[in-house]
Amino acid sequence: MTVSVRGVQLARLLGRWHALPARRRSPDYAALASSVRGLLADGRLALGVRLPAERELAEALEISRTTVSAAYRELRDSGHLTSRRGAGSWTTLPSGHRVASSGLWMPDDELDLIDLSCAALPAPEPLMAAAREAVEELPHYLGGAGYHPSGITELREAVADRYTERGLPTSPEQIMITNGVLHALDLILRLQVPVGASVLVESPTYPNALAALAGRRARISTHGLDEGGWDAELLLGALRQTRPSLAYLIPEFHNPTGHVMSAALREQLVATAQRTGTDLVIDESFVDLPLDGQPMPPAVASFDRHGRVLTIGGMSKPFWGGLRVGWIRASAPIVQRLAAVRVGVDTAGPVLDQLVAVRLLSRAAEVIPQRRAQLAAQRDALVAAVREHLPSWRVTVPSGGVTLWAELDGPVSSALARAVEPLGVRLAPGPRFGVDGTLERFIRLPFTQPVPELVDGVRRIAAARYDLDRTGRPRWSEPALIA
Q1: Most buried of 52, 152, 261, 435 (most Cβ within 10 A)?
Q2: What is the rounded distance in angstroms from the CA atom of residue 189 to the CA atom of residue 174?
Q3: How many CB atoms lie within 10 A of CB 472?
């Protein structure tokens, strides 16, 4: 089912479209068409959305219907709108403008490379002690077959206790241990999403989640985030209109924008999902990383009374990505069904890795505060460097997580990523975080590198940006997988 946007909703998204700099040089219809194209390019207005009728939008904007008709005509001419008599008009992109959201990344040993495509921290110091203790504990498991499809009991108990401490009572039977967060999502998709089913995601969102959905050949619809985060009316409206089989959302320090979903919207989201028959997959990869001492909203699952919410999380962001341990929190029957699905995929996870995770979780009170302090200092240094060397870029300082979502001074994200690579910097351009090749005005900058590398990286980016307007087309190169 096609998502529709009402006139008042589109008017709110357009904002002060008539006050844009180009407005004085352009007629009203051209300024309106340009503003709609801007919403599409920024991912705030998804593709395939049915726009309001001309009369309805004219009333919402308090302009003449003739102006709206001319704007729609210009959008059709530029390939950003498709209309059919009796069916309405819906958003599109000109042919050839679609960009894939996945690529291939290989470890690079170049010492001078500043990798700003990967939002992950190096291992914490207590990891070695945790590993030694895990090896000492391993003999207790050597007498068995070593296959634990739902995870070893000790780790399931430790993860369940962490949810309970957050005010979400959880039993070990509600926990399944996986080989990372993406593996958790993949297992859920195998169980809950038939091939070709409708799935709702945010735009922008985590690129590897989009790759997993593409692997299931899901029909993806999007909800565009703006500088304030989620638009409650549009998000809940998208659920009601499309009634997707599943929605994948990142409510805590959203990747890549850093937004945090309000408690009120979390409650409304769960209630709406129940009415539409939608399962909610809530990615809590960054929930342990508030950086300004703020209290966190209740977990989305705390509003769930019908088993609609499946929460995924893991060790990658707060601890270390090389420890491939993630988990799913769901109802006990769903966990049992997920374990049955897993037997046909990878049977079980490594016991030793899970024992290391148990020991690291027992040190969370030591590791997590250090991580937060480190990330807060690196975030502030990155923001200061961007404001100094790239003052025309707009950044909203995130209150947690590991990434900065920067709005550029033009739709040059992919070109900039290619231009800066010869200077020894790897970037994640905006289109990697979208479905349709939009988001060219944005780029993700993680603050997981040491401060000197972050500052040096921004200087190199600034140099590439300066040269971009003064040189020919940059050479094409293979894209990188974004972590």
Answers
A1: 435
A2: 18
A3: 5
Closest CA to 217 of 243, 199, 236: 199
Distance of CA 93 to the CA centre of its chain: 22
User: Which of 453, 444, 439, 433 minimizes the C-alpha distance to 401?
Assistant: 444
* Per-state percent for the chain, helix, strand, coil, to nearest 5: 45, 15, 40
How many residues are there in the chain? Answer: 483
| 3 state DSSP class of 331 | coil
pLDDT score at 29: 85
Amino acid at 148: H
One-letter identity of residue 379:
R
Q: Mean pLDDT, 10 residues at a time, over the chain (483 residues)?
A: 79 74 67 83 77 88 88 86 81 60 44 84 95 95 93 97 96 97 96 93 94 90 91 94 96 96 97 97 97 95 95 96 96 96 91 97 96 97 97 95 95 92 91 86 96 96 88 51 58
What's the pLDDT at 399? Answer: 96
Amino acid symbol at 213: L
Alpha-carbon span 84 to 82, nearest angstrom: 7
Type of residue numbered 360: L
Tell me the helices (H) and strands (E) count for the chain, helix number first. 15, 14
Mapping DSSP to helix (H, G, I), strand (E, B) and coil, where does residue 196 land?
coil
In eight-state DSSP terms, residue 194 is -
Selection from 168, 162, 163, 175 nearest residue 364 by Cα: 162
Residue labelled with tokens 């993700």: 444
- Please tell me the distance from the alpha carbon of residue 271 to that of residue 458, in angstroms, as a whole number: 43
* Partners of 282 in the β-ladder: 249, 311
Helix (H, G, I), strand (E, B) or coil at 74: helix
Residues 208/483, Cβ–Cβ less than 8 Å = yes
Amino acid at 116: L
**What is the DSSP secondary structure assignment for residue 394, as one 8-state letter?**
E
